[in-house]
Amino acid sequence: MAPRKIIIDTDPGQDDAVAILLALASPEDVDVLGITTVAGNVPLDLTSKNARIICELSGKVDVPIYAGCDRPLGRDLVTAEHVHGKTGLDGPDLPDPTLQLQDGHAVDFIIDTLRNEAPGTVTLCPLGPLTNIATALTRAPDIAEHVQQIVLMGGAYFEVGNITPTAEFNIYVDPQAADIVFKSGIDIVVMPLDVTHKALVTKSRNDAFRALGTSVGVAVAQMTDFFERFDKEKYGSTGAPLHDPCVTAYLIRPDLFTGRHINVEIETESELTLGMTVADWWGVTDRARNATFIGDLDSDGFFALLTERLGRL
Ligand code: RIB
Ligand code: CA
Questions:
Q1: Which of 67, 136, 186, 227 suits 217 as a labelling partner, its CA being 20 to 30 A distant?
Q2: Using one digit for the tens of pLDDT, what is the confidence trace for 9-21?
Q3: Cα-based distances in Å from 225 to 14, 89, 154
Q4: CATH fit for domain 4-310, picks 3.40.50.300, 1.10.10.10, 3.90.245.10, 3.30.300.30
């Protein structure tokens, strides 16, 4: 079967980095048409720099990278240096990139790519706030029917919030954008904290990354060593949750994941619950089912896939 054509929209972020590396290590499964950056974990200039660092680390320097929106649609940017460090990629000591950004805006790249590729053949993979995706859908409504699927990391239900008591970071940063995406009618698969908090980099899993002995393996071990301290302190978890790599792994091995097709709506008004993904997991409303909400994964299978593929780089 031909590899899936994808655009990765991202705010690197150590977990974004691992998701990008997994994609670039899997050309038989995914064809990365481009990487678009968005403000999120850190400001846009740093997410754009980090995307270039990650592509150079992988050795795949022919993937075009476009910078996108530098702030959410309707509110001030909230960043997460407390989780990812001031660079957004703290942990490994990686060289500044020589790879350049493409000219042009990420939103234009998303629109043009969807219009130029055969309809229904491109999957969008947002790993950060949905600002770029929502801006593209608003500026060019015709592209919605061109999208094969959106597979995104964001939201939470049983796991509740990680940035407020009720909201997950990606959705919280830009709730208006998330509302546009979840109402777009596009086939959406959601990787919420409910599943990503089960993809924990335990010490043995981190040791397996380091044992690859490659620059990628060691860098991923160092990234997850740094990245885990927030979740260990907050949740007492046994390692860093690999949120964003769940998106890439789903594209490669969807059988590793289980979920339900349900209604998911976004709180965009209440300051108390802003950015909450209101997931009708038990089907208690007659609201239209608009998303496949993933609740579980085979974590050993996930890490076996991830470690094998990272070993290719
Ligand atoms: O809440 C986790 C999400 O927020 C991940 O995508 C992480 O990279 C941050 O963007
Ligand atoms: Ca991210």
A1: 67
A2: 999 999 999 999 9
A3: 10, 12, 22
A4: 3.90.245.10
